[in-house]
Each structure stands twice: as C-alpha cells, then as structure tokens.
Design a protein that fits this description.
The chain is mostly helical. Helix content is about 85%, strand content about 0%.
Length: about 90
C-alpha cells in the first residue's frame, strides 16, 4: 500500500513541477529578447542566418584541427552578438 501511495505522490509532484516549469517558460518566452527586438525594429535575421550558414560551410571545409573550427564559431558568435545588441540600442 505504501508503494502505491509513494507512486501517486511522485506523480502528483511531477505534475506540479511540470506545470510550474511550463508557466516559467511561458513567462520567459513572453519577455522581449534581442532577436525579437531586432526583428521589431525592422532588421531582418539574414545576418544571423547568413553567418550560421557560412559557419557550417567553413566547418565542412576546415582542416581537422579543432582550434580552427573554434575560431570560426567564436568569430560568428561575436558578429551575431554585436548585431543583436546594436538592435537593442536603436
């Protein structure tokens, strides 16, 4: 009997945690972020998508050295962050 009670308690706790997590995610998604702000200001996401596409191509063509790939994606991250943060200031 205690096993079935424990199982029901665990299920109830799991349901409550899932509901709280869903509510938290819904609140976070409703907050404006840098990409949403940049799109609202009339800037398109072509820069971000273009850099990711070029990064994928560069990764495919890069030598097997991991440092080259890290430098490529590091540069892409910097470019995308600068682009998104300048959209916030406008």
């Amino acid at each position: 009997m205690s096993d079935s009670l424990d199982a029901r308690m665990r299920d109830e706790i799991d349901d409550q945690v899932a509901e709280a997590f869903d509510a938290y995610l819904a609140d976070r998604l409703a907050e404006p972020g840098p990409l949403r702000a940049s799109l609202a200001s009339g800037r398109s996401a072509r820069v971000v998508l273009g850099t990711v596409g070029l990064g994928a191509l560069a990764t495919a063509l890069a030598p097997t050295a991991g440092t080259v790939v890290c430098w490529i994606w590091g540069a892409i991250a910097v470019i995308d962050l600068v682009w998104l943060l300048t959209a916030r200031r406008r």
